[in-house]
Amino acid sequence: MEPATRLDHNHELTLKELPYLVRWRDDRCKRCGRCTAVCPVFAIVPTVVVHRVVESSGAFPQPKTGRRVVTAIKQSTNISNYCIGCATCSLVCPNEAIEPEYNPQNKFLIHKNRGGTPYTRGGRRNDPLVSTLDRLKFTRISMLTDPALDAGRHEFRLRSYLGRILPADELPVKIIDGKAEVDHLAEKFIPPVREIYPVMIGSMSVGALSPNMWEGLAMGITYLNEVDGMPVVMASGEGGMPLRLLKSRFVKYFIPQIASGYFGWDEMIRAIPHMVEDPCAIEIKYGQGAKPGDGGLLMAHKVLKLISEIRGVPLGVDLPSPPTHQTKYSIEEAVAKMIQSMYMAWGFRVPVYPKISGTKTAKAVLNNLVRNPFAAALSIDGEDGGTGAAYNVSMDKMGHPIASNLRECYLDLVKQGKQNELPLIAAGGVGKKGNLAANVAALIMLGASCVSIGKYIMQAAAGCLGDEFNRCNVCNLGKCPRGITTQDPKLYRRLDPDKVAERVVEVFKALDVELRKVFAPMGRSTELPIGMSDGLSADDPAISERLHISYAC
Amino acid sequence: MCRLSAITSSEYFSPVENILSLETMKEGHDGSGMGLVLKDLGGEFEGLKEYPVLSGICSKGGMQVLDDYMDQKGFKLKHIWTPKVKPVKGIQPRDYYFARAYEYPPGFREKPFADKEELLLATRLKLRKMGEQDESIIVFSFYPDVITLKEVGDPMELGEFFGLGTDNLRARIILAQGRQNTNYAINLYACHPFFIQGFGSMTNGENTAFVPIREYLMSRNFPGYTGYNSDSEVFTHILHYSCHTLGYPLNYYKDVITPLKASEIEGRQDGEAVALMKMALRPLCIDGPNCVIGFTPDGYTFMVQDAKKLRPGIVGGVSGKIGFMSEECGLDSTIPKRDRSLDVTPMKYDMVIVSPGAKEVKVWNQLQGWTTIMN
Q1: Contact B51, B101 (CB under 8 A)
Q2: Three-state SS sequence of A9-20
Q3: Where in chain A is the domain with CATH 3.20.20.70?
């Protein structure tokens, strides 16, 4: 007897299970085939269908039925070829005949575990709700007794420090004839400190990003420094940096990252004698907000010639970074040693700081760093951070939101009187809803010395399609339709690095104006309002209580 | 905005002079209070310069508690001054206004002054705490050769209320502030000038950076950095922290509260040290707009303001008497016969410093260094 499945398509998914439904309009489609050619995941395929038609020709109605074979676009119901909603098909369609539509009733996560493999993806936490940062507003407006400033004409100094700052009572400063002088005979170590723009581009590696994307970002921040005088810096991500850049004078705008795989560091160490400038700082990655406690993985298909050269590895092999540094077993000893080793590599001229994922235990890490005179900062990456590849469960359910994590770390420093000594860098979901300047200003007022952005710049500078409705998010597959997170030349040639650089510059210049528009009415211009928590209110009493700020409604 | 009047002189003078200048500048204050700090005392305190003077206000019950406490700690009462209070409509008199000179407890008389300062501060803070709940004890200062007087009301009426016109209360440096209440509730502890261990100052303009500055000061583990009923109290404490704790010369107060840009610091001879100071003291940048007038324990008086101060204060006078006013009309009323061409309105980079006895007026410019205006 023939099995029932052959008749009722049981064990197959219906389109309603899938996260995006492709809306294709037969009447507009001219069958050019661009959409099916461009679809990165083969979610749509050209097919032929037979239509029953009723026609009548002649002076009197004489309907006849017949059949016509037509070409059509069909959406796959195979879970391996689900529509990711990237809308590249809409982008290339000349007649607006096709677009994906989000299906809120989808059961995607229930089915996306075929072969016993959990769902992995790139992107960010799929939570479209308004984040805490977007629930904060600036309520201390200078009025009359303290006139607001003119954001357009007043002189603003939007600068911050990256590096360990000595407390005033430990400065090797002596007064001679009424003048302060640095006492060089005191043999006091003065840690290196950089004055930087308070927003940096966070760690995204050459490898996770395409060469065109990384180069575009690098050119953008170099332009900002060299031409516009904005000291914006960029972290490299794990995986080293192009040798040409390491040996150039522009390396001072970059923060090379060392992570648990140590990828790229053979080349880095070999380049040190040839460097003409020191890097801005060194970031030691212990964790990442998007996938706390998880390692990194650059899939084999992304490990092409350039990547293998930079990272010093063979072509076409998976490059896993372990979840932890294998040589590190305690923060007190081993992390301190690693920080010092990095200092030694550059003759104690370069600040070295760790980056951790947001966690309830951040304060424990912080307090160890406070006692380590070499720790230059602490970067905390909240749960809304992004990644090129991770398990969905890690991205969606693991980690700690940045707002309260940062706040409690800052207040802990205040309690110890160390709030100005160890700068806090906040990251994770900054600009999630597009309110970059407001989110940055709020984090600074909660206690951050600097804010790190990743997804925002990918979206703004290169048009990354991802969002919190799981749109696109195939960074891990190397199929990025924008050419941002891929090593496939066919894809990344779509991305013009010059245009990326141009957008980076535009984004930072616009951000600078908006930050002034936030700080000016609050009467702040000379120093960054770090910890100016009286300027903030939350629209929720619970949030205000947790963050120790006022509630306004 | 509050009105400020400070006078430094080679001769002892009455606080009425300050009050008259505040009256001239009356458009700017709303009569919500006046504070006076007198330093380098004359009159009946001239012979008592070594003895710490406790200034404050007590209820009848509070006075008893205060006396008991001072007795218990070994302070011996040496001299009492109380104003001859005259009822004035609108001013609610409190039980007991006083400035009392004490002898140090026996165990402290031979101790170094630093130990004595510590004792005086701890005693003042304890008394403040004892009377804070029911306002039975309010103490403003406890230090040799310094008297503080504060009350709610219009300055002229308060002068009449305290009988200052006929009193022989005199000093060589007097700071006076007519309040424009910007601290919501009227609290005497919120009234300028503020004083701590020989340093006094008063300010006008709101302090936008108040919270981070307060957090920084309160985390210095120094018991005197407390209170902050006014956002301006931090200016006095920054002065104390810079000059007393860190030992910086007075002109570096300017670099602490209004730091230069990195590119400007590079041009300074002391740029290397100033750059380190700027980083280390970043939370103490006041980010104005504020005008600060104050004095140091050794009798230097100064005015400093930040670049955002739209209407700067003014310093001027004659050798032997210099006024520091928030408005020019105040200076005109106090020292009308002066060479106006020597008046100084300290701008973005400037700090005016006048030597004890009002002999020398110098301007410290963060970029250019010192200029002597009057000598």
Answers
A1: yes
A2: CCCCCCHHHCCE
A3: 135-160+194-551
pLDDT tens track, chain A, 553 positions: 566 556 678 889 999 999 999 999 999 999 999 999 999 999 999 999 999 999 998 889 999 999 999 999 999 999 999 999 999 999 999 999 999 999 999 999 999 999 999 999 999 999 999 999 999 999 999 876 666 778 877 889 999 999 999 999 999 999 999 999 999 998 899 999 999 999 999 999 988 999 999 999 999 999 999 999 999 999 999 889 999 999 999 999 999 999 988 899 999 999 999 999 999 999 999 999 999 988 877 878 788 888 888 888 899 888 888 888 877 667 677 788 889 999 999 999 999 999 999 999 999 999 999 999 999 999 999 999 999 999 999 999 999 999 999 999 999 999 999 999 999 999 999 999 999 999 999 999 999 999 999 999 999 999 999 999 999 999 999 899 999 999 999 999 999 999 999 999 999 999 999 999 999 999 899 899 999 999 999 999 999 999 999 999 9
Q: Cite the residue boundaries of each domain of chain B with CATH code 3.30.70.260.
A: 50-144
Task: Round to whole Å and give the CA distance between B95 and A423.
Answer: 51
Residues 6+ apart with CB under 8 A from A188: A166, A170, A171, A172
Chain B interface mutation, best of A145, A162, A195, A370, highest count of B Cβ atoms under 10 Å = A145
Q: Any residues with CB less than 8 A from the CB of A177 and at least 6 apart, and which?
A: none
Rounded CA-CA distance A435/A454 in Å is: 14
Pick from B206, B221, B258: CB nearest A145: B206
Give me the residue from A147, A169, A414 closest to B246, CB to CB.
A169
ipTM value, please give it: 0.94
For residue B259, give every residue at least 6 positions away whose Cβ sits within 8 Å of its Cβ, in sequence order, or none. Answer: A526, A527, B278, B281, B282, B285
DSSP codes of every residue in A500-536: HHHHHHHHHHHHHHHHHHHHGGGT--SS--TT-GGGE
**Contact: B277, A168; criterion CB under 8 Å:** yes
| Terminal alpha carbon distance of chain B | 32
Q: Helical H runs in A61-210? A: 88-92, 108-111
Q: Which CATH number fits domain B50-144: 3.20.10.10, 3.90.228.20, 3.30.70.260, 3.40.800.20?
A: 3.30.70.260
Measured in degrees and rounded to the nearest 5, phi and psi for residue B234 equal -65, -30
- Measured from the Cβ of residue A469, the count of other Cβ atoms closer than 10 Å reads 17
DSSP labels for B116-157?
A: HHHHHHHHHHHHHHHHHTTTSEEEEEEEETEEEEEESS-HHH
DSSP state of B344: B
Q: Domain spanning B3-39+170-374: which CATH class is it, in words?
A: alpha beta
The H or E element containing residue A320 is strand A319-321
d(CA A254, CA A268): 13
DSSP category for residue B177: E
Residue of B32, B222, B279, B349 to mutate for A, most A C-beta atoms under 10 A: B279
Classify domain A12-117 at the CATH topology level. Answer: Alpha-Beta Plaits (3.30.70)
Name residue B354's beta-bridge partners: B301, B361
Q: Which CATH architecture has domain A135-160+194-551?
A: Alpha-Beta Barrel (3.20)
Residue B206 distance to chain A (closest CA, Å): 5
- Give the amino acid at B225: Y
On whether the CB atoms of residues A263 and A227 are closer than 8 A, the answer is no
In B, which residues are within 8 Å of A416 by CB distance?
A: 219
Distance between CA atoms of A357 and A379, rounded to whole angstroms? 8
Q: Do A525 and B287 touch (CB under 8 A)?
A: yes
